[in-house]
Predict the structure.
Amino acid sequence: MKRIMAIDYGDARTGIAVSDLLCSIVGTTTVIHSRRPEKTLEEICRMTAGSDVGEIVVGLPRNMDGSEGPRAELCRSFAQQLEQATGLPVHLWDERRTTVEAHNILSAHNYHGKKRKDTVDAVAASLILEGYLAFRGR
């Protein structure tokens, strides 16, 4: 089996979550700190090269009414670049409310300030991955 990597793409921080080998739960998380899309892309390629990742899921930010704004187009473009650079299938996944949920989870566990800022994107990526894994399991 191959792992699945979920990405919460951001301007300054990009959250990464990778499933376990059975693709049933989130295995590891990390955050890439970069304001340069090409550096973020390079780092993700490094992470997938020689690993057990077989597919990638990129969070697609939609408005609450389901429409898409400029941020969604940026994520679509990044997903296309990822697919070309890694050679892996890349799927888009509706990420509405994942960042809000991530903040709620961190608040409930007393994460505040810099500690929260450094973690929220990885938690959001985990929520994207959990949603995608649940969908695949159906």
In short: Residues 120-137 form the longest helix (18 residues).
